[in-house]
């Protein structure tokens, strides 16, 4: 029996692969590389794609199918494909859809490895990328060329937690017949659904809040059926598939995504309010604080502000260093979206290679701290950050 619910929580919990003879309540794990056939005709029909069935786990597997089905429902997408990592999803999506000589327009502020694809690798295939600043979406149209194929962005951005107006991007993409691709990692499908605003494809690093417990890597791209078909054909030949084990873990993780993200956001909001009132903090950026430059846009397109808070400690690099060396509980790590609160210093770690001018464009200053709020009690998180600020 199934209830045809469109509620997020119900779909996240109740979307399951077909029952087997054992009627497991929790979906079993299908750790198999291949699948068998009754006879030669069945095998021929499967290879000819006349029959929708599993054949080989690089192509599909019941666990990856369950995970993808859930993400499709939660994002309002027609179809999808799951990858071993978020970067495999980003790379394969571009590689499947672009031809040599095509042009990309991207927000300047994107995940570091995505930026490396644009600057180091795609030029090998004569694929160029033009950039726009988060606060200059009105300039996007002037960047369009006859060979522009993709408009690409993330919102909220990493690490600046800036917000891009997805509706504006959707309109530009539609008017100029560009594919709009949104990396929705920071928001998760629970807080924001870019397809509603005109995105053709949505990408997630499932490693972050979707797993949410710092255990496995994974990625997924969902969206228009005909585009996913291209991405699927590229991927079944090139092999970036998600493992069934990780798919099983991630599918289970989705069952608790809504309750986890609610608490992540509650903690982040409370920390942001605390920091805003602290004398050793120059500024705080959190999408659902009224002081955020794109607060109105965030309120329009997101259900809540997410789990990332950015702030600047007073006193530049030295103050930043003291802050990190005095932290007792929060982890110093590059990951985000974990149950454990993580603090990162982008200027000396993830973004240390950027020129000062580029740091400014993506919203990084020397004293800036990125905090990924976890699920510890908020009093303990605030207490830890408070004692570190006192040492500055
Ligand atoms: C982490 C991240 C990625 C890459 O994901 P991996 O699973 O680490 O490969 C892509 N985009 C954003 C916004 C991310 O935060």
TrEMBL record:
Q: What is its EC number?
A: 2.5.1.-
Instruction: State its cofactor.
Output: pyridoxal 5'-phosphate
Would you tell me the Gene Ontology cellular component terms?
cytoplasm
InterPro entries this protein is in? Cys/Met-Metab_PyrdxlP-dep_enz (IPR000277), O-succ-hSer_sulfhydrylase (IPR006234), PyrdxlP-dep_Trfase (IPR015424), PyrdxlP-dep_Trfase_major (IPR015421), PyrdxlP-dep_Trfase_small (IPR015422)
Modified residues annotated as N6-(pyridoxal phosphate)lysine in this record: 208
Q: Which reaction does it catalyse?
A: O-succinyl-L-homoserine + hydrogen sulfide = L-homocysteine + succinate
Q: Which GO terms describe its molecular function?
A: carbon-sulfur lyase activity; pyridoxal phosphate binding; transaminase activity; transferase activity, transferring alkyl or aryl (other than methyl) groups
Leader sequence range is none
Q: Which UniProt keywords apply?
A: Amino-acid biosynthesis, Aminotransferase, Methionine biosynthesis, Pyridoxal phosphate, Transferase
Q: Which biological process annotations from GO are given for this protein?
A: 'de novo' L-methionine biosynthetic process; homocysteine biosynthetic process; transsulfuration
Top-level class of the enzyme under EC nomenclature: transferase
What is the superkingdom listed in this entry's lineage?
Bacteria
Instruction: Tell me which PANTHER family the record gives.
Output: CYSTATHIONINE GAMMA-LYASE, TRANS-SULFURATION ENZYME FAMILY MEMBER
Q: How does it assemble?
A: Homotetramer.
Q: What is the purpose of this protein?
A: Catalyzes the formation of L-homocysteine from O-succinyl-L-homoserine (OSHS) and hydrogen sulfide.
Q: Which family does it belong to?
A: Belongs to the trans-sulfuration enzymes family. MetZ subfamily.
Protein name, entry field? O-succinylhomoserine sulfhydrylase
Lineage of the source organism? Bacteria, Pseudomonadati, Bacteroidota, Flavobacteriia, Flavobacteriales
Gene name per UniProt: metZ
